[in-house]
Amino acid sequence: MRHLAPQNRPVRRPRILLLLAGLIPLCVFLSGCQPPAEQAAKSTPDGDRRLQIAMIPKGTTHIFWRSVHFGALQAAEELGVDVQWRGPQKESDRNEQINVVQGFVNKRVDGICLAPLDADALVRPVKEAGRGGVPVVIFDSGLNAESDSYASYVATDNFRGGQLAAEAMGEKLGGKGNVVMLRYNQGSESTHQREEGFLKGLEQFPDITVLSSDQYAGTTTESSMDKAQQMLNRYGDQIDGIFAVCEPNAEGVLRALEDRKLAGKIAFVGFDSSEAMAEALRAGKLSAIVLQDPVQMGYLSIQAICKVIRGEPVEPFVDTGVYVATPENIDSEQIQKLLNPEKA
């Protein structure tokens, strides 16, 4: 049997409900009317929570990125932050890199370090990150966006690197001959700067003729080897020198030259190192290698994004250095360190 309370008798509420009713407005006031997740995401760097930094390379297969990762982990350990490393498997997969950026923005990481594999395609995701309150540092390769779209750019002076490659080629050829330059991949700003720097640098050698400079070798060693074979088939013994603008391109060219027993007979300048490239330089199969400092690049990128998050000033462009390895200086301490950088 159910009993009804008399109409003139007040209904008693449990005291715990009254207490909760009083606490809810207080909690809302203290939290600034924000949900707990958003509060955690915006906690200050001086709090107990470690900063979560996303680092997104162009790809994850090439040796260069493993060294960038090593430098990033070094900085993270020193600064007491966490680095989440993720990127597309293929350096031609623009959509995958865009998805990775958007995923980290949705996770509300504290900051992003990004090496855009396409200078145009990644503009919108970077701007969206900024509007979402996630600062971005660009590294390795530039972005065709206003400078206020990102906090800093940490990279090699790639145009200068291309000029140094041209100087090494000109010296090896004695200032005269025919050369082929293999481009990397459309949309890659870093390698585009190297390509343009090389062509500009060759202007000081009026007796050097560029046979081809408009062919893209692609993002893998295999595609680069195929393209090098095509160039050798087309121009044959007219070729006196070849310039390849990054690690997979250079390794592909090296394999093609070795396959035809031309390694060491054609002047060959590469960009970026690997174990095979270092061995080829020592063996005289390479004339020179233009080297970046990937460990320093990773380190300074993490350092820059942490400064941004903490409200400290950062330089708009941070130059990580560019060097040239030759058979003559291959055993110097600095060149050995760059030819064989630490890897994650």
Summarize the topology.
Layout: H1 15-31, H2 36-41, E1 52-56, H3 63-79, E2 82-85, H4 94-106, E3 111-114, H5 123-131, E4 136-139, E5 152-155, H6 158-172, E6 176-183, H7 189-201, E7 207-216, H8 221-235, E8 241-244, H9 247-259, E9 267-271, H10 275-282, E10 288-291, H11 294-309, E11 317-319, E12 323-325, H12 333-339
Parallel strand pairs: 1-2, 1-3, 3-4, 4-5, 5-11, 6-7, 6-8, 8-9, 9-10
Antiparallel strand pairs: 10-12
Helix pairs in contact: 3-11, 4-5, 6-7, 8-9
Major β-sheet, in short?
6 strands, parallel
The coarse overall form would be: elongated
Number of helices: 12
Care to count the β-strands? 12
The CATH architecture term of the largest domain is 3-Layer(aba) Sandwich
Mean pLDDT: 88
- Distance N terminus to C terminus? 74 Å
CATH class of the largest domain: Alpha Beta
Give a written overview of the molecule.
Helices cover 43% and strands 17% of the residues. The chain is α/β, with parallel strands linked by helices. It folds into two domains: 52-156 and 294-319, 3-Layer(aba) Sandwich (Rossmann fold), CATH 3.40.50.2300; 158-291, Rossmann fold (3-Layer(aba) Sandwich), CATH 3.40.50.2300. The strands form two sheets. A six-stranded parallel beta sheet has the order 2-1-3-4-5-11, with helices on both faces. The radius of gyration is 27 Å and the shape is elongated. The chain starts with 14 loop residues before the first helix and ends in a 5-residue tail after the last helix.
Task: Describe the structure in brief.
The chain contains 12 helices and 12 strands. By secondary structure, the protein is an alpha/beta fold.
